[in-house]
């Protein structure tokens, strides 16, 4: 997690994704790591805005 700028949580409906995300955020906050959650609408963004991009190898 220290090398990531964001995390994507995927899974079927009612599988506990929100519960897991909130528990992890609370644990990080209790450990002294400021944790901010942003909920995005992926349909409102293009792929580069959503995922970023990698430089192609030369």
Automatic annotation (TrEMBL):
GO molecular function: dynein intermediate chain binding; dynein light intermediate chain binding; minus-end-directed microtubule motor activity
Entry coiled-coil feature ranges: none
Signal peptide, first to last residue: none
InterPro entries for this protein: DHC, P-loop_NTPase
GO BP, sorted A to Z: cilium movement involved in cell motility
GO cellular component: 9+2 motile cilium; dynein complex
Superkingdom, natural source: Eukaryota
PANTHER family linked to this entry: DYNEIN AXONEMAL HEAVY CHAIN 10 (PTHR10676:SF343), DYNEIN HEAVY CHAIN FAMILY PROTEIN (PTHR10676)
Name of this chain's protein: Uncharacterized protein
């Amino acid at each position: 997690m220290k090398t990531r700028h964001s995390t994507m949580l995927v899974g079927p409906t009612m599988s506990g994704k929100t519960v897991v995300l909130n528990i992890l955020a609370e644990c990080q906050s209790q450990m002294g790591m400021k944790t901010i959650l942003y909920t995005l609408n992926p349909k409102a963004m293009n792929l580069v805005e959503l995922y970023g991009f990698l430089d192609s190898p030369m």
